[in-house]
Amino acid sequence: MKLVDLMIELVMLLQILEDGLPIVLVAVFTVIVAANAVWCALVMLLPLKQTVLVENLIDLIFDLLIAVGYPMILVCYCLSAFKFDRAKLMINQAVFPQGWLEQSASTIADPVQTVVIYKTLNSLRISSIFNFFTRMGINITLWLKCQRLMNLMENPRRQSSSVYPRHCRLAASSLVAFAIFVIIYVEESTRTSAVACHPHPECVINARRWLMLDSLTQCPCLALIDNNIAPKTYSEWMDPKDITAKVAHLATMGLLQIVQLTNRKLEVLPEELRGCTDMRYLSLVYTHTQTLPVWAKELKQLEYLHVEGKMTIGLVKLPDDMFDEMSSLTTLHLGSNLALTQLPSFHGLTSLEMLVVAVSLSLLELPAFDSLYKLERLIIGIMPQLDSLPDFLPIHDLKSFVIMDRGMWCCNGS
């Protein structure tokens, strides 16, 4: 049973390293796993009274730390680490009209802090079959140990034999070696991945992997954020820094899940992004992007897509079948794409909750809302060529509908 426990905990630790969680949380989980192994070794070597009861009680405590204690520590960390200017948000909500981007809390919050908290809390979700079995495994072992401890307390005579072999130096040494290996592996994974990502300050979260010397040029980046929200000169605004090569390099390992760029030139998405099949968040604001590649539809795990152009340059065309398989997309924001005349079908957007289409002066019509069953917020702004709206009948739970600058679809524009 203890071997199964340690293997499940090791798998969970590896997942925490892959998720790039803050080093404090990594250290806490590492200490729990290593202490669990060392405790077993001590039980084997030390003469303890009521050994069976003590063994089961301590085992239960360690399982509770993994299944209940650690998630609570994780949530407490997020609550203490997240700082937000609520007074500024209240001012924005009072000053800016309903539907403006400035009313959103995400425009005020520190993007790096937001992404770290998002990734940290997201690690609590059961997001894969493998993750499901590890969580179920730790909970099943916890339940079995609770049952065993209750039976021992009800019938003390069952405490006659120890769960672990007594005075077995080989087994105890193996457990101590396991604890040392776990600590060294975590330390080296943290150190070598930090070395690989040091030249790339835009990578705000990276997977913690033990990289060999020949791999130290490849940063296992999970989140790339490069925002220039206050250009100091006119040339910085009109001709921003080209970040295409940087994005391509950080996407080489296929691990990128979050890309957020503001006022950085990325005219074409590099081919390397195609391999980032676990991409969840893509925000391209003032990036001079005129089109998205035909393979963009392969980003099936995408949950958030924001593409905003400038008055001088923006999206011109999107692939016709781009949204056909994006069933995970919950937010779609397209703004200031003045030359865009047509949007792809919304047929695949069955999970879409928020749709924003604004300042699209050439857009003639919106696709049918037939699949937007879960749409809750709809914002349409400054679309003078739009002469009608799709049927709202398929939308079951629309909570907010904001229109800015009436167009031909309403009252002949008057």
From TrEMBL:
The chain crosses the membrane at residues 20-48, 60-82, 167-186. It comes from the Eukaryota. PANTHER family: LEUCINE-RICH REPEAT (LRR) FAMILY PROTEIN-RELATED (PTHR45752:SF195), LEUCINE-RICH REPEAT-CONTAINING (PTHR45752). Pfam families: LRR_8 (PF13855). Signal peptide: none annotated. This is Uncharacterized protein. Keywords: Membrane, Transmembrane, Transmembrane helix.
